[in-house]
Design brief:
The protein is of the alpha/beta class. The protein has 15 helices and 13 strands.
Length: 403
């Protein structure tokens, strides 16, 4: 009994622990801080889930996330790819297939918006950061040729690079980001629809070497938002991603800028692949897709019942084995019968029961004298069945001797 109580207590504690663990993971996933900054799966100020959910409310828009490489994306004049939170070094050295996939998406009519992580570093600070020294190879020319053949950069492929400007001033001994506004120089209809000025939160700017890029916003004549037309689509680069964050949509919404970027686009794709959020089709995806949660719950319940049944059978077997061990002693059958009689027949009745059994096996009903004598002894010696037995035995022995 005590073992079964401990078993049930263990099951309850295990259930409470698993429930708490699932609730903890659920809270972490709901908050989304396990995802990188500007991910559409993140709900804190650094995420962009508010923008994703807001656009999803429009019935004429198709809003989704991309968890696969760009090679599988197909562009069209109604689609836009949002690439938020890119690192400053993400485009310095990439596979050639990466830029070719983006170009193919744009040529087919899609628009790609790439916004970099806001940075408050100055050019002097960037230069002061020591670069990692690469191991010298025995054949440097061969390695360089292989790198040029397999890899590409934003500067080489698109003719544009990131630079840092001195947009920070010192005040009261602390470095404070200086709030500044960008002036617009319209050159086409797309630029005319943009707001005249917007706040900026990054010290990075662009520097391009060909005329295929057009400046959308500048600060001190330094481009911070540029656009390039390619085929039927266009590429938009921004040195700031703050406009798309949850915090910006709460405190400083730039609705004209966002509406202009999304204008004419019915398919909006939030890219999560570059943030490391990759979709790998497996059993969990099938469960979510076909809603097999209750099926798995049923299987789990069946498993628990099977375990409980097997444990109950094992417990019964242990009890049976213990009973068998108790029965298997050194006592013989006579002692067992005596023990059984002691438990079921009172002492005062033992002599009468023995005589009654003896009567059934003996033909003494005709001998009334002996029968009366035995009955008198049984009635008079019920408190001392041993003495009564001795008297009966003595009487029967004498009777047999005379016969």
């Amino acid at each position: 009994m005590r073992k079964s109580i401990y078993k049930y207590i263990f099951i309850i504690i295990l259930a409470v622990f698993l429930t708490g663990l699932m609730e903890l993971f659920n809270l972490r996933f709901q908050k989304g801080d396990i995802y990188p900054a500007y991910s559409s799966l993140r709900t804190d100020p650094l995420g962009s889930k508010v923008l994703f959910r807001s656009l999803s409310y429009f019935k004429n828009l198709s809003v989704r996330r991309n968890y696969q490489s760009f090679e599988r994306l197909e562009g069209n004049p109604d689609s836009i790819l949002l690439y938020f939170g890119a690192g400053s070094k993400d485009f310095q050295l990439r596979e050639k297939g990466f830029f070719q996939s983006l170009d193919q998406y744009v040529i087919q009519g899609g628009r790609v918006v790439i916004s970099f992580l806001p940075s408050q570093q100055t050019s002097a600070q960037v230069k002061a950061i020591p670069e990692k020294k690469e191991k010298k190879s025995e054949s440097p020319n061969h390695d360089q040729d292989e790198k040029d053949r397999n890899f590409d950069s934003m500067e080489k492929h698109w003719g544009i690079v990131l630079t840092y400007e001195n947009l920070i001033f010192k005040k009261n001994g602390e470095f404070v980001a200086k709030k500044f506004f960008l002036t617009q120089k319209p050159f086409n209809n797309f630029q005319k629809q943009l707001p005249l000025s917007i706040p900026w939160h990054s010290t990075m700017s662009f520097k391009y070497s060909n005329d295929s890029w057009h400046t959308l916003y500048t600060f001190n004549e330094k481009p911070v938002m540029v656009e390039k037309n390619l085929g039927r689509g266009s590429i938009v680069l921004m040195t700031d991603s703050f406009f798309f964050s949850n915090e910006a949509l709460l405190k400083d919404r730039q609705v004209p800028l966002l509406s202009t970027l999304f204008q004419g686009r019915k398919e909006i794709i939030f890219d999560e692949y570059h943030l490391g959020v990759i979709s790998q089709h497996g059993i969990i995806d099938l469960i979510v897709q076909y809603r097999l949660h209750f099926f798995l719950l049923s299987l789990f319940c069946v498993f628990v019942l099977l375990v409980w049944k097997n444990s109950s059978l094992a417990f019964q077997d242990q009890q049976n084995n213990a009973t068998v061990q108790l029965i298997e002693t050194k006592k013989d059958y006579f002692e067992g019968l005596s023990s059984l009689l002691r438990k079921n027949i009172l002492i005062k009745n033992i002599l009468a029961v023995c005589v009654e059994e003896w009567y059934q096996g003996r033909a003494i009903k005709s001998d009334q004298e002996i029968k009366i004598y035995i009955d008198d002894i049984v009635s008079s010696e019920n408190k001392d069945p041993v003495r009564g037995y001795q008297l009966i035995y003595k009487k029967l022995t004498e009777r047999k001797r005379y016969e």
